[in-house]
Amino acid sequence: MRIRIPRKKVRERFLLIYELEGCQKATDFLTECYGVRRMKIVPNGRKVGNGDSACYIENKAYFTKRGLNKRTVLHELYHHLVDTKGLELSETMEEKDANSYAREFLKLSTSSRFLTRKA
Ligand SMILES: [Zn+2]
Questions:
Q1: Which of 16, 61, 68, 91 has the most crowded Cβ, counting Cβ within 10 A?
Q2: Could you tell me if residue 2 is inside a domain?
């Protein structure tokens, strides 16, 4: 992976902000940590198309209603990081990396367990 997953403290803070203040605030926190410009979250399924749950176009991430979740937000954020850092990746490679980034980010985070709501 070309972009490093942030340290534990940052990941936990992201999850906490996500739960308490929402996905835009949480994303703003992460882009600030990486020192890149913000990524705007736009809930607009019509922009997405192709049966996908989200897509990234020039500093904006578009989501369908079902697609708006932590994993997809982190996936699209990876595209944003690649874009703002000007990394040259093939489309397939970037897609693979974005998936691993989101998966590893959430796997490594213990607080997702402790944040899970009890019924
Ligand atoms: Zn993607």
A1: 61
A2: no
